[in-house]
Each structure stands twice: as C-alpha cells, then as structure tokens.
C-alpha cells in the first residue's frame, strides 16, 4: 500500500471528514507504538506529527536497545528486569532492527568507579539471569587487562584492572519508528507528518479533537476524535498546557544527550564499549563502532533551549573529547576530527528523579538479600555450590522485587499515563526499549474508555507477536534471512556491500526496494541501488524532503559523511523531479539540507 505524499492528501481528507476513535499527537516511538496497536485492534485512528516521523527525540538516541547494567550496582533489579525482558520482545517483533552484539566494560581502579572486577561479574550474572541469556555465544565473561588491551589497544592501560563482556543490542531508532508507522498505516490508520496541533477542541466539557495546521499548505482544519492521546515526549507539557480546562502542573524535565562521530581510523574501537566518565559525576560513556565510523556519547544535562533544534554546544564537545582522550590517549581526537553529530532530548518525568535511565524510585533489595547474592556467587566461583543454587537465589530475588509494582499511573517504569478530567490522555517518559509495553498499557485504558462510554468493543491483540513492517523474519534466523534478501539485490546487479546495507535497513521489505530497480536508472551521484532505495522511500515511507531520506531513513548524514556531498546532489535532483518542485522549492530544500548537514558537522564550532 502506498504511504506517500499522495496517501497523505487522501488521509488528510479523511481526517477532516470522519470522527476517529483515537487521535495520537506525536509521531515518535511512543506514538508509533500506540498507532500500530490501535490499527491492529481495528480502531479508527489517526496520528499527526508536526515534523517528520522520529525527527525529534526518537532519531537522537544512543542507538542501542540496552539493559541499563549500571543499575545493578545498587541492585535496582526492577528497572533492569523490565528492560531486558522487553528488549527481547522488541527484537522479536522487529528482528531486522535490534541486533545482538558483545559490549565491553573495562574496569578501572579509580575513585567513584561503578564496578570492580568482582562486582561486575556479580552484576553480569544477574543481568544474564534477568535477560534469560543462555546461548554460549552471548553469556557474559570477564577478561584480563592484557586481553582488554589486545582487543582495544588504544585504551588507557594505567589502572586498568580487566573487563567484563556481556550481551547488548545495537538499534536503528528512526527505522524502528517508521516501520511501526508503516504497519499502522497498512492496517488502516491515518498517519500524517507535518501537521501541527494548535488547540484542543471541547464540547460539553470534554475534548473532542484537535485544531491543526498543515505545515505544507498552511491550511487549518479540525480533526474530531472520541479520544486524544498526547505522545509528544519532551513536548508533552506544551500539549497539556493547551488544555485550559485543566489545572496545569509541568511534569517533564528534559535532558540533552549528545553524540559525536569520527572515522574509525581516528578512534579504532572494534566492539561497543561502556565505561565511567572518570569525572566522578555518575555518568557513563558509550563508544560504539558503526559502518566504518565510531561514535561516542552522552552528556545528559538539563535542557531549557529550543526543543525543535537541540544541538551540540562547545561545552558538550569539550566534555566528551576530554573523556575520550583520557580513555584513549593515543587517539588525540580533536574537534575537527568530528565528521557528524547529533543531540537529542530525553523525555524524563520530574517525579521519577530525572534519572538518565528514567528508572525513578523502583525498589532496591534488602541488605540481607544483597549479602545472599554476594555469598552464593563467591561460593559458586569456589565450586562449592552449583549454577542451580545461584539461579535459586536470583529467582527468589526477582520474585521478591516483583512485589514492588509500578504505580497506578505508570505503564512501565519511568513512564506515566494520565487522563485529565476532560479526557486528554498523556503517555510520557519511558525509554525506547519500553515503547511497546507503554503503548499496550495505554491501549488497555483507551479500549476500556471506549467500551464504558461508547459501548464499543475491540478484540485485544498480543502486541508481543505483532511484527512491524519489514519484520516478517524469523527472529531466530535473522542473519541467514538478511543474506537471502541481500542475494536478491546482488542478483539485480548490486554489489554485496550495497545489497547487504539495504537488506539490513529494510528487512523483509528489501524485496520491494529491489523491485524498484526494474524501472529506475542510476544517475549523477546515485547508484542504481541508492535510486531504488530513494524511490521506495518516497512511495512507501512518506519521505518528503532530502533531509528525511538522508538523516532518518538511511542515516547517511551521520555515518556516511565521506560520500554525502556527492549523494545529496542526486537525491535533491531526483526528489525535485519526482515531486515536480519549482526552482524556488528545490533551492529551499537544498538550503534546508545544507543547514542540517552544517549543524551535524558542527561548522559553527569549528
């Protein structure tokens, strides 16, 4: 089914003329999660996003679906258990996106260290137990100082004790959003970007819809719905403030995270690595290899600036470069080595303590339970007890902590689902890993409201088994399936590298991408594969601007900076032809793309 500029016009006409069961404001991962479930359950539902899908927070994460192992230092098991269990669900429903990888956690003997060599093994064992990790390929282990340096020769050796290795998952955040949105649209939802909510509509003291502005045509119109849910992340308070019938109390405390990208030759990190900042500030830093680049972050600082345009500032860059050059002293990374960057806001809820993991006040174990865990693992290492004895202690620990339920307003730890007296639902907080669980909680509340107030009944779905678009892949056989799709691309004339890239990006939709090759041709700056990818994206991913494609559909701006200048010309020219842009519109789109690239390049700091 087409999901394009054409379907956008059709969907807008329906939004103007039909009453919806549910309207979602916000097209990031939280709104996408609600939309896919609402569509699958048969609700007449729509979603509006004032920017491109995922343009805000949901394309600006650390691009990992990680489990928060640092919280096991204090045995904050509730947070980690929720996350690692939900991580497996996300990998099941979107198997081409989260992909397993081994994370290295080097351990230094320094003040304020999160772990020492003993406690990291305890934490990793518990982590594996909570995550159900049994595959020998991914079971955790510790390594010596010499082996850490053999793996990563650029790491600082002074005070290095050794390291831990455990399972984590890399992610493509913006692809996860668009694949959810596409599936929601395929199942009947009306999904429209570049529509801005201006005001909430009321009738008889109840919210009945939203007055909106089409940012592409400057047309204002009303969308009517029985229920409206606010999933705008850091913008949640802006929407809540529109509800003049409600006493407004701010609930969000957004923080900014920053990531910088350099060539792998500058900073050679063969596997993802996670370590303390070394500044005794409670922060930890990720360093992740990706597509011949290495990126690192993050800073996690309170943010009070322009929500639409968070960017890397001098102090952010100085902070990260100082840490990286301390940990990798021979790299000597300078600001001019940075090829690209991104900054994003985390939608933290003030009442959760604004933890960077958003875990809030989840339960801690008692001192006795802590000592039991330490004792049994020490005895296991001395071969005095069996692995089963360890598992019994950990299972008992998890059972005890399960009594610490999330509060009534929460649908996952660190999240909040509220309903105002006039009916506005707001789903906020959480992490990208929790999005499906948050949406399932919201949909349970929404379907109950529809039943109680409108006598409408909808069959529940098992969203743990609802694959996203492109996710029709056996999660236990991902690599072989991706290779199968890549072979189709190679049979159509692509190189193995290019065919594999597109198979990984588009999953089971790769065949639809490759089918484009029968009626498109390579052009200046664009290979045949890139042309096929671009046309697929315009026709089936509502890609409306060059920045949509190069930043969020392909991550080209972030991880392929060395080929970007050549490719962008071809993208602009082909999109101008496809959309019949005027000379002025083409110039505007080109200028907008250049501004995005300049910001990513951090030209203003160099």
Automatic annotation (TrEMBL):
What is the reaction catalyzed?
Answer: sn-glycerol 3-phosphate + O2 = dihydroxyacetone phosphate + H2O2
Tell me which cofactor or cofactors this protein depends on: FAD
Q: Where is the signal peptide?
A: none
**Might you give the EC number(s) for this enzyme?**
1.1.3.21
Q: Which residues form a coiled coil?
A: none
Q: Which residues form the Alpha-glycerophosphate oxidase C-terminal domain?
A: 463-586
What is this protein's record name? Alpha-glycerophosphate oxidase
